[in-house]
Specification:
elongated, mainly alpha, 10 helices, MetI-like fold, 245 residues
Length: 245
């Protein structure tokens, strides 16, 4: 219902000319029509597939690295105390702040946006995983050890199932950041993708195409977040059923 009200307000405001002319603020129906036209012509489809490939590659790299680093930081306290300050120093740097340096190291090619996306995805997953591992009840860990479970079995059979909500919260945050970072990187680094299409539309003053790209971006972010929420329900249920009571 809130989305329907938002779309209705957008349509009314655009058609009434309250905010701007129809060329500068097109109604939602025009944006939707342009989106279908771009998809039918293949322009949006090709751009979206390019961006999707970069997001998946960068997100997988950043997420797996973040989960591994978060487990190490949260499970082994001495390592966590040693490396946490380093992570804390690097975390505030915006992902796009690495862009000039990576341009020098990697060059202007397909690896550049993937590397930026991986960096943006790494930190939320790492922090959430480490927090989830540290917050596991020590009584459960001691109970697993008393029952004869090794450290590795305790980690995968007790700690990670309990920390799963934290891990998936980090993955949901990273998925949105991955898409935003991908669009920004494509706007300045590569000539293809939704970000590049945005820049071309801006040069032609095609506000309808710009809004179409933003709508597609919003839908993709929502789909990724919903997918991770579904995975959390499935995986957490299976993991939690294996936790000893």
């Amino acid at each position: 219902m809130p989305i329907c009200l938002f779309v209705l307000a957008w349509e009314i405001a655009a058609r009434s000319g309250i905010l701007a002319t129809a060329k500068l603020f097109p109604p939602f129906s025009s944006v939707l029509s342009e989106t279908f036209a771009l998809l039918k012509s293949g322009v949006m489809t090709q751009s979206l597939l390019g961006t999707l490939a970069r997001v998946l590659a960068g997100l997988c790299l950043g997420a797996f690295s973040g989960i591994a680093a978060g487990i190490v930081l949260g499970w082994w306290a001495p390592v966590g105390r040693s490396l946490s300050p380093v992570i804390s120093i690097l975390y505030p740097i915006p992902a796009l702040g690495w862009l000039p340096l990576l341009m020098v190291w990697i060059g202007m090619n397909e690896l550049l946006p993937m590397a930026i996306i991986a960096i943006a995805s790494f930190f939320p997953v790492c922090y959430n995983t480490a927090t989830g591992v540290r917050n596991v009840d020590q009584g459960m860990i001691r109970a697993a050890h008393i029952l004869g479970a090794s450290d590795i079995r305790t980690l995968f059979g007790v700690v990670l199932p309990v920390a799963a909500p934290y891990i998936f919260a980090g993955l949901r945050l990273s998925s949105g950041m991955a898409w935003r970072t991908a669009i920004a990187a494509e706007m300045v680094a590569v000539p293809t993708g939704v970000g590049a299409l945005l820049m071309k539309a801006e040069s032609l003053v095609r506000v309808d195409i710009i809004m179409s790209c933003l709508v597609v971006l919003s839908v993709m972010c929502l789909l990724f977040e919903s997918a991770f929420a579904f995975m959390e329900r499935k995986v957490s249920g299976e993991w939690r059923s294996s936790v000893p009571h």
